[in-house]
């Protein structure tokens, strides 16, 4: 905090997220996340961490917390005060995806070790304790998304699969193998009738 990074060149931006009320934009930087006022009036805070590369940033549904994934860890910050609230260590090498449950009580992280391991872990967002490893694969998890009701969790991985889980017991509801390459992103429609996906196979 006392020694913020100094940039000689613009950093690579790996992740951006708007707060639910649209007031803040979280932007990944080097060793930090920059919270900008969305109206363009300047910086609200600099959240300086230990990890050089910030992979993913995600606001909680109420906008009061920001989850940040770095090398082998996740940090949870108070987006109002800019204070670090919690560090979740012992993650796999990279965490590419973060998703909060609708009530903000659970945080799901997807990632792994490229070419070796993929997993989605669900944590208690208040304590940081692991609740369950809901998904495992032979290559990294690239996206995780809850439906609008928080009853379903979709996981997309580089094994070319999409798996949908029930969140009450994390049993498998559906497994989709329509893609021929990495599944990069998934999202539910607001009425939960459809699940859209994007893949490296260009579909």
Descriptive notes:
The structure is a single chain. By secondary structure, the chain is mainly β. It is built from no helices and 18 strands. The mean pLDDT is 95.
Q: Notable features of this structure?
A:
203 residues; 4-stranded antiparallel beta sheet; 18 strands
Record field, number of beta strands: 18
- For the biggest β-sheet, the strand order reads 1-2-3-4
Radius of gyration: 17 Å
Structural class: mainly beta
Low-confidence stretches: none
The ordered H/E elements are EEEEEEEEEEEEEEEEEE
Alpha carbon gap, first and last residue: 43 Å
| Annotation field: number of helices | 0
* Largest sheet data: 4 strands, antiparallel
Helix content: under 10%
Subunit arrangement of the protein? single chain
Strand-residue fraction? over 45%
Shape: globular
